[in-house]
Amino acid sequence: MNFDYDFFKKAFQMPFNGDNGKAFRKQLAENITKAAELHTQFLRSSMDTMKKLQDMWMQGVDWYIESQKKVTNFITERISGQE
Predict the structure, then answer these.
(1) What is the pLDDT of residue 20?
(2) Which has the closest alpha carbon to 2: 29, 37, 26, 28?
(3) pLDDT digits over 8-19, tens only?
(4) Residue 16 belongs to domain spanning
(5) Which of 71, 19, 62 is nearest to 79 (CA)?
(6) What is the tally of structural domains in the chain?
(7) 13: three-class secondary structure by DSSP
(8) Which residues contact 16 (CB under 8 A, 6 or more apart)?
């Protein structure tokens, strides 16, 4: 689905009344709808990407916390003389 930018360049050369005006308004409505759909797709894609990044970040945080627990347990065992 491509947005027709050339339409807007030509649009203001057309009269807004009669059959040309109807065709213009119809095409304008279609182009606005296309633009809205493309914008919605972009937002959904951005939201999906942000969700994936958030999930990856949280996995990293979980890994870090678990690794710190292991290090702490290892040090605690060494200090207390257990192996």
Answers:
(1) 67
(2) 37
(3) 666 666 566 666
(4) 5-79
(5) 71
(6) 1
(7) coil
(8) 24, 25
